[in-house]
Amino acid sequence: MGLLSDPSRRKALTGLLTRLNTPICGMPVEWLVKAMQSRGLEVFTQSFSRKLPFPDENKERYMVRGTNVYGILRAPRAPRTEALVISAPCSPGDSNNQAVGLLLALAQYFRNQVYWAKDIIFLVNEHDLMGTQAWLEAYHHTNITGMEYSPLQGRAGSIQAALSLELSSDVITSLDLILEGLNGQLPNLDLANLFYAFCQKLGVLCTIQGKLQRNDWDTAEGYTHAAQTMMLMVLKQACGRSWGDHGLFLRYHIEATDAATIGRLLEGMIRKLNNLLERLHQSYFFYCTSFFSFSLQPSGPGVLTVLTPVVISHLTGVALYLLPVHLQEMAVEHFPVSETEAVVLTAVAIYTAGLALPHNTQRLLSGEGTEQGWKVLKLTALLYLAVLLGCTALINFSLGFVLAVTLVPITASTTPHMPKALSALVMVLLSPAFTILYCVFIYQELIEAPVSVSEGWMLFLSVISQGILDHALYGSLVYPLLALFIYPCWLMFWNILFWS
Length: 500
Prior knowledge:
Blueprint lengths: L6 H14 L8 H10 L3 E15 L4 E13 L8 E9 L6 H15 L7 E8 L1 H12 L8 E2 L8 E8 L9 E4 L10 H14 L3 E3 L2 E2 L7 H19 L7 H4 L5 E5 L3 H12 L25 H27 L1 H7 L4 H15 L7 H6 L4 H25 L1 H16 L7 H10 L2 H15 L6 H22 L3 H20 L3
Parallel strand pairs: 3-4, 3-6, 6-10, 7-8
Antiparallel strand pairs: 1-2, 1-5, 2-4, 7-10, 8-9
Helix pairs in contact: 6-14, 9-11, 9-13, 9-18, 10-11, 11-17, 13-14, 13-18, 16-17
Main location: endoplasmic reticulum
GO cellular component, one term: GPI-anchor transamidase complex
Pfam families: Gaa1 (PF04114)
């Protein structure tokens, strides 16, 4: 009987290795420094560390320590007030070694050119997004995620644009343009158009959402293809996570995109960005501001009747936001689960318990609910939902759209006089949690990787844990938005349904 033959021992050893986060082979820092120096770059390193709120079982890490290596190619004939960034994440193993090699080859080629008007920074970051986050925070002298990092010894000018390289194989047959960033941010339309047009000029196949663009837009197949591409982009935006290193640059108003690409194309892109005389500006945003006022002065008991479910619903949301991470140690001590499982299952339990907590609360504190009471509560909830969806759409339009499609029809028609059982079932099936579950299945269908119900459920739990981690590590707003605002607002309508 070996050490790993016992399931409990195997699980304990796996947890220990995850906590220690000891890779078999880390990033070759010294080799990268020498390679960049041999290409005439000013080379610097930056160390960083971060303790995750709970172990990331997807990437098997808990205590993260890493080093970023970056080299600066100074512009020979410019005041050096602006810069461009080319980054390549150095992933464990050899999954992205080709991108690092391409980055070094570009550095050697660019070094021999004299037309650069901007500094060019070649960044090799460890631990994917965490390394990029540490480098960007140090570059801009901010610390919004609580990460520990050493200050940067070398700096360039204001970063105008960035390209992140990720190569999936040695043989490149096409380029996939990845645009979605943190909290649904997108790079400037100019950058995407420039990239796509340059691919067409060089005869390089360029895909968006993994799909080649069609020319027969006026056919049924063309419309179906366009709808699938649009839905994929909506779902990826709505989740609020960054789909590559480029997504973190967007937070600092740096136009960035992620691509699997080739040398000639990259050299052309950097030359075009090098010739910019001003920031990219061809993006169109529509802001809709509505002003409304109303006069409603219910009596004192009526105000209390409305405030009670509102306050308790939001206290439930606060519990959903705070308790899963804070109670993980207690859950691990009393139940045979890992820290990650404890966080996710606690969140699910609080969400489910919330269905009963605000239920008929107004009767417990204020006696029988009145007809005017539920109407005032519904008016308040509808105005609240309208403001929430409007603000969400300004930050992340796709997330606001998905929430509006699922929440508006049922909430607008909710009254205490509806059939309770059927209406409750419909409301639960259109609640925020089930919306996430539907998005998981739809996304898997769109990428042509359908999953079973059990596999979809596991992906759903993984999405929850990843959302909490993304909020703690990178400042993603989706989890706090759903926990602190959308879910309490939905609970207010749930309370209206059972008003009596």
